[in-house]
Amino acid sequence: MSNAIEPAANPTGADQTGAAKASHLLTVSGALAVPLRKIGPILFLGSMGFLVTASVNQTLIQQILAEWDPVTKVAHYSMISLLGSFTQMIGSVVFGALSDRTTSRFGRRNPWILGGGLVSASCIAAIALTNSFPALLALWLVGTTAISAFTAPMAAILPDRIAQNAMARASMIAGMGQMAALVANGFIVAALLANAQRGLLIGAWPIAIAGVVLFFGAKEKPVSSAEKRRGGIAEAFRSLRPPRSKDLYLALAGRFLIMLAIYSLFLYQLYLLTDYVGTTTEAAGTAMALFGVFLGVLGSASAVAAGILSDKLGRRKPFVYLASGTMALSFVPFLFSPTVTSYYIWAALLGLSYGLLISVDQALVVDVLPNKQEGGRDLGIANLANTVAAVLAPGLVGAILTVTGSYMWVFIVGIVLSIGSAICIKPIRSAR
């Protein structure tokens, strides 16, 4: 993309000082970095745009399925969720690898980001115009695949265009976009739920808008002839092979375990409140609304603090340890007190933990990438941890409740998973 900085011809003290200053402008791939003040707002919008589209429209689709047939709604939604997660997992790796090898004059990542945003939005909007489940399923699978074509190359913006000493802050800004989407989700759904079909026609387009803004607002330089990859189709398929990197897989395992701990309660909040705490459905709704406030306020505060401190200190692992410890601690009040107060304590500590993660965890993964030129593929593999955790969490909790009949074991497993996450991170050598 950008040209690498050449070493100084005359290594005098002044030249070394200049080179040291210049090194702060390098990305981890050795190219000139884009100033964070320019690309930061675009990262925020990109992250928010894709998550608004993905989260809001899943809820609207649930409503459409319920309107079509209340009896089959759960089975049909489970099917599209499972298959959609599968297409996203495959798409993350494939489109990440394809973006690594793209030689467009518009750059490596931007064409995929734009195309993925437009195709996914078009498919989701088209769901509003269909009245059959097979058509809905087909459109959703194409749409989720296209979402991967947006998200995998967008994740690679960090190693491509962000300086090493700004990586955690860039990760924080992108994470804040996701946080804003989660907080806004309830308000947007409430406004669109009365007419789910019209809601899909409106709610499909944030990811497309984000794709257009990223394409034109964060332009890539054309891939130079020296950077163009050759080898044909066979080499392209070989590029899909998983990398040989112990540190990358340790980071992936750590992310998977803590995300599994988070999702184990996050996806069961309603049942947790009504079945374990004993609230009414109305009271549970009020508590879950306040949950969004805790997540937004405390998550944002910890994300900003961790992003700034991590870049300043040049360290990632201590902040991930803190996130894991805070997550483990969040389950403890439930062990002793099945009350709404315990739920709010969990929400507050979850917000703090999640804020730490969105700032530093992605920066840590970028630090351990074995080949920065294959960042799209490897970050796509790392992001499988989030998707797989979201898919497995409901089954894990369901199995625990079926076998034990008690939420207590869900909390204990959550504590173990959180601590296990920190244990996975400790042996990593290529990040501090």
CATH topology of the largest domain: Growth Hormone, Chain: A
Total domain modules: 2
Mean pLDDT: 81
State the helix count.
18
Shape: globular
Beta percentage is: under 5%
Biggest sheet descriptor:
none
Reading off the top of the CATH hierarchy, the class of the largest domain is best stated as Mainly Alpha
First-last Cα distance: 28 Å
* Oligomeric state as shown: single chain
Poorly predicted regions are 1-23
Tell me the CATH superfamily of the largest domain.
Answer: MFS general substrate transporter like domains
Q: Kindly state the number of beta strands.
A: 0
Approximately how much helix is present in the residues?
over 70%
State Rg: 22 Å
CATH architecture name of the largest domain: Up-down Bundle
Helix/strand order, N-terminal first: HHHHHHHHHHHHHHHHHH
Q: Structural class per helix/strand content?
A: mainly alpha
What's the arrangement of secondary structure elements?
Blueprint: H1 13-23, H2 36-68, H3 73-101, H4 110-127, H5 133-155, H6 157-161, H7 167-192, H8 196-203, H9 206-217, H10 232-238, H11 246-266, H12 269-277, H13 281-313, H14 317-336, H15 340-367, H16 375-382, H17 384-404, H18 408-425
